[in-house]
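Let us work through a complete example step by step.
Step 1: write down the sequence.
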Amino acid sequence: MTYLWFKAFHLVGVVAWFAGLFYLPRLFVYHAEANEQPEAVRTVLQQQYQIMEKRLYRIIMTPAMVLTVAMAIAMVIVAPDLLKEPWLHIKLGLVVVLLGYHHFCARLMKEMAAGQFRFTGQQFRWFNEFPTVLFVIIVMLAVFKNSFPTSAASWSVFGMIVAMAAIIQLYARKRRLEKERLAASSNESDEMADGLRAKGSA
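Step 2: predict the structure and record it as tokens.
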């Protein structure tokens, strides 16, 4: 019964932690893209994103990460035979990668707060998908355990990555075309205004 309590709270922590891991990099996307705005708007947006990022990281993500890890340790203490399971070794390795990702997000937050952007909005979109891939693999490991369907899972993950890449590229193309249309429309308006001024002067 004790093990089940630990497992229940472990799952609660996992859900909350991944919610943050999915959302924080999305805020990074918007934060980076705010650089494309006029200075007055850019300053307001970046200040707001900094507040949202800090609150998400400190109030939700980090406590959820601590809960996840603490309950996992408790489960292993109660049921030490779990450490003999090969699937768990792989899962723990992926969790270590996630912990690194978590702390790397904190570094990115500090850099952006200082006005340093090592990634563009487009690159942050790729960065945003990394925990999604790990999440899928971790869930499949937890469900299938030592019966993990390696071939099917590999093709599924590969297909998911290809789909993500296609969606990101299509969205980038859509944004580029929208910017070109706006630029063309602005130029036409300027030309019309110049023509009207020229007629008025005549």
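Step 3: interpret the result. Residues 2-148 form one domain.
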